[in-house]
Write a structure and sequence with these properties.
This is DUF1211 domain-containing protein. InterPro entries: TMEM175-like (IPR010617). This protein has nine helices and no strands. It is mainly α. Helix 7 packs antiparallel against helix 8.
């Protein structure tokens, strides 16, 4: 089974996710700088979510570029990832509207955790049919550390919400650059 449709569909869904997020940004009611003040939590949560969706899009691109074969299981694993990514606009809006409150931030972390888990499943499905990819990725220590940090961030969000948010920012910083393990082996 070819990978072209998988990549095109995923790119389309990710583009829609970003579009939904930006459409949730509301224009301020005033025309001065003070009118922006109440919108900073919404904008800050949007920026972090945009970065996360960009990270997933970038790494997904590298991942799919590296494979030669997909299967029905890969398609389902990819849909599982897209499902969790599609919830990012919802939790982003919730976090922004409620100014980084504990429950919305914990839910945000849960969606990030599940997105990470779904990405890990997609990688495992792809590795089972693409030995070179498996060799390139190795043990995926960075992915496992990220999942642990998300769990820490969820717990921290319940106690000190901004600390939970800081943990989510830390994971984004860790992943900001594309996965060099794939990029170094597959040049195009």
């Amino acid at each position: 089974m070819g990978k072209g449709r998988l990549e095109a569909f995923s790119d389309g869904v990710i583009a829609i996710i970003i579009t939904i997020m930006v459409l949730e940004l509301k224009v301020p009611h005033g025309a001065d700088w003070d009118a922006l003040q109440p919108l900073w939590p919404v904008f800050l949560s949007y920026v972090l979510s945009f970065i996360y969706v960009g990270i997933y899009w970038n790494n997904h691109h590298h991942l799919i570029h590296a494979v030669t074969k997909t299967t029905g299981g890969v398609l389902w694993a990819n849909l599982h990832l897209l499902f969790w990514l599609s919830l990012i606009p919802f939790v982003t809006g919730w976090v922004g509207e409620h100014h980084f409150s504990a429950v919305p931030l914990a839910a945000y972390g849960f969606v990030l955790f599940m997105s990470s888990f779904a990405y890990l499943l997609l990688v495992r499905c792809l590795e089972s049919h693409n030995e070179a990819l498996k060799d390139a990725l190795g043990s995926d220590r960075k992915g496992k550390i990220s999942m642990l940090l998300y769990a820490v961030g969820i717990g921290a969000a319940c106690i000190t919400p901004l600390l939970g948010f800081a943990v989510y920012v830390l994971v984004a910083i860790i992943w900001f650059l594309p996965d060099r393990r794939i990029e170094s082996r597959y040049k195009s």
